[in-house]
Amino acid sequence: MNRTFERLTPDADWAAGKVASLPTRWQRRILRQWERRRGSASPEQDARRAANLELLTLTDQLGGVRLPLDASDVQVCEWAQAMADRCAEHAQLFHQPEALRAAMARTAERQGIEPPGQRVEDAPAMRRMVDPLWWRRGLRKLHAKAVEGAAIALGYVNKSRDIYVSAESLTRRLQQNARNLATLENTTARNELGQEFTLAELAAKGTANKAIRRAELMTRISGFERIARDLGHEGLFFTVTCPSRMHKWRTVKGGGVIENPRYDGTTPREAQAYLAQVWARIRAALKRAGLGLYGFRIAEPQHDGTPHWHLLVFHAAGLLEQIKAVIWRYALADSHDEPGAHRHRCDFKPIDWTRGSAAGYIAKYVAKNIDGYRVDKDLFGNDAIETSARVEAWAATWGIRQFQQIGGAPVGVWRELRRVKALPEGAPAHLQQAHNAVNKTAVIEGRENASVAWDSYCRAQGGVFCGRKYRIRIAKREAEGLGRYGEPLGPRPCGVETESLETYTPHHMRHMGGQAQRLVHWHCESTRHTWEIIGRQKKRDGAAVAPWTCVNNCTRPASPDEWSDAELIRMDYMRHASGAGGLSTGAFTP
Q: Residue 358 in contact with residue 228, Cβ under 8 Å?
């Protein structure tokens, strides 16, 4: 809007127009603040000017994305389709790959989306920018952060209003999850054995299923605890929080909240990056001092959306004070002199084995951050199921990894071993031990349910301090064909592999009875299916696509082999718009 025209427009109409693209409750709040500001100073002209400038600055900040902040997930998907169509339409004007890519990149940048980098070749980059799914991912992330950042700035995210995440972000995330579930339920796949499942049924068999995800996490935590008990190690549960300047709100006596005058505008994602940096320094210092840890960390939001970390770790006996000193040193490196820093920045609770399981210290945090299983209320008295939905929306909005393993053996190999039906004859003992640990029908040390044998698996891999020297690795094979954007597919998992020393008698030493050793490489194939989508509800997100004109069709080369990348992009788009299929990833067939 032209700034001269803004000054000529009546103030009330101008202010209403500036907030028109914001959620309704935000509009009311901003306009009330604007009206109070106009009457809070004198003379009247200065108050009017100050209020208008404040409103203008605020709405410019909140309007950092082209998409309205109150847009639903459906509207985000429609806008993604429109942007993909707009990029494809550039092919009518630009016929050289460099010029066409640059035009598409400018369209992405104007929407706040970072275009593919220079490492991506022209054709794959352009295929991304005409793909609605590529746009949808970028716009969802951008829009989600803009909405939630605005909600925090306006003071909506706290325990007195919208705890953990704003109502707008929660609604958007629930809409997105509902759309994703509907897509999975309406899409059927068939494997090479002729078995047919919906994608929802397939997803329910893995860690996308919240119950399975929670159970696996608790399995690994319990396995670490058994190792700690067997080795005589000690446990420590501690919490690390961010400095006061990263919190929008502070709690006062009686449980109420007031705005924090020290708040510097730090977003939850920036606060998460701060905690990750602190932990990286702690981990490096512990390694230099020879103080090994293993366990888990959980990132969860405080009431105003600022993350804090809970960690359950195990360590050799007698090292507690040394470990605490290192943690204190780096946790207090930032703003160590602020009031309450030494009391609130870190909280340590050594595990008392006589009082029960160490896993019990962290179980409620795992459940709260996944599905609220067997957790009645959260710390603030909210229903645990609603809380888990809010925490999931918070993590998705800011791209925060909620759970992370510390030390131990990699979980990827654990999962791949489950796909290995049988080991070859003579397999080394550590491979047999690991396979038995993940095999649900095996009996490990008297336990009939081998899913609880994470401790046995870790020992087979070389122990909880094996680091990058774990014994069994995922085997990968080069995949044939091209991906969605015309690029060669990367290596794909095909099983596990390991090495072992074998003692044998060489042929030339048989008469002497001599022996030698050799390194044997073992490769075990996993069972993997090839899936083909055989049924999908055909549904377009957004308005019908305008037909292509034939302006350039008469001048294109006669042979497809001579077509430029721009021509291929245009022909791909024509196929997509006509419903003939998705973007081509191989040679084009006219």
A: yes
The answer to whether residues 249 and 349 belong to one domain is yes
Among the candidates 483, 502, 531, a domain finishes at: 531
Euclidean distance between CA atoms 484 and 256, whole angstroms? 52
Residue among 469, 442, 475, 474 at smallest CA distance from 456: 442
375 falls in which pLDDT band (50, 70, 90)?
confident
Residue 50 backbone dihedrals phi, psi, to 5 degrees:
-65, -40
> Which residues does residue 455 pair with via DSSP β-bridges, in sequence order?
none
Helical (H) or strand (E) element with 234: strand 234-240
Catalytic machinery residues: 361, 365
Contact between 246 and 264 (Cβ < 8 Å): yes
**Enclosing domain of residue 433:** 411-531
Report the distance separating Cα 274 and Cα 259, nearest Å: 22
Q: Which residues share a beta bridge with 496?
A: 474, 524
Q: In this structure, is residue 21 part of a structural domain?
A: yes
* Measured distance CA(436)–CA(8) in Å, rounded: 78
Query: How many independent structural domains does the chain possess?
Result: 3
Q: What is the 8-class DSSP label of residue 503?
A: E
Of 21, 46, 62, which residue is a domain's last? 62
Higher-scoring residue by pLDDT: 486, 576: 486
Q: What is the pLDDT of residues 89-112, one digit of tens each?
A: 999 999 899 999 999 999 999 998
Helix (H) or strand (E) holding 319: none
Give the tens place of pLDDT for each residue, 46-72: 778 888 888 887 777 666 667 777 788
Q: Which of 176, 173, 172, 140 is nearest to 23 (CA)?
A: 172
